Amino acid sequence: MTATSGVRLIPLLSWWFLLAGYFVLVYFIIVERLLRKTESAKTFRAGTFDRRSTTLVSAGFGVGLVLPLVFAGLDLFPLPISLAAGLVGLGVMMLGLVLRVWAAAALGGYYSRTLLVADGQRLVTYGPYAKIRHPGYLGSVLLWSGFGVLTSNGAILILFPLMFVGVYLYRISVEERMLGQELGGEYAEYRKRTRKLVPYLY
User: Fold this and answer.
1) Which residues lie across from 153 on neighbouring strands?
2) Cβ contacts of residue 138 below 8 Å, gap of 6+?
3) Contacts of 87 (CB under 8 A, 6+ apart)
4) How many C-beta atoms lie closer than 10 Å to residue 110's C-beta?
5) Which position has the higher pLDDT, 156 or 49?
6) pLDDT at 108
7) How does the average pLDDT of the chain come out, rounded?
8) Above pLDDT 70, what percent of the chain?
9) Which residues lie closer than 8 Å to 76 by C-beta, 6 or more apart?
């Protein structure tokens, strides 16, 4: 293989991994839609507790989907990806996808797009919720961080983890205020024995 052919293979590998990342994201969006059981769970109509957190999450998703294509088209901040790095990025995305689906399945009928408290809602403390209070959000951070690797872009590699951690920390602050108000002492006790996002750490 000549040096010239080696150079040509790098962009091709980058595009393949970018397409693979988009495929995982599309699959995630479809599965997430299917996991929402009720009409209220599927709506974008925000309740009084939401405080624009759903709008912020949606904006993050929009930026996450569009920005890699814009940067790739303009050839901004390219960072050619290796096969090993691409496989790691895909692995992180799949881990995030599995965690997000597991969390949604555990919530069942309580899984909603906006912040809502269902009639007769009970606190879910099993499955991934036994150790952390927001496993679905951790799954999303992993999903987008892995995708950041697959974009073959140095700026996005740094931006996506920071952006989505920030987005979901705000969402968590709003959600925990809602659950503390609606579920009272039961949620306060649950907070004492669990972490927000990372088991045993945070």
Assistant:
1) 78
2) 96, 99, 132, 197, 198
3) none
4) 17
5) 156
6) 82
7) 88
8) 88
9) 70, 153, 155
DSSP line for the chain: --HHHHHHHHHHHHHHHHHHHHHHHHHHHHHHHHH--SHHHH-----TT-TTHHHHHHHHHHHHHHHHHHHHHHT-SB-PPPHHHHHHHHHHHHHHHHHHHHHHHHHGGG--SS----TT-----SGGGGTBS-HHHHHHHHHHHHHHHHTTBHHHHHHHHHHHHHHHHHHHHHHHHHHHHHHTHHHHHHHHHSBSSSTTT-
Q: Locate tokens 């994201």: which residue?
A: 25
Look at residues 94, 76, 69 and name the one whose alpha carbon lies nearest to residue 145. 94
Single pTM value for the model:
0.89
Query: What's the residue count for the chain?
Result: 202
Mean pLDDT across 181-190: 90
Identify the CA nearest to 168 among candidates 66, 41, 68, 56: 56
- Least Cα distance to 99 among 155, 146, 61, 42 occurs for 146
Nearest by Cα to 174 from 49, 11, 59? 49
Per domain, the residue ranges of the chain are 3-193
Does domain 3-193 fall into CATH 1.20.120.1630? yes
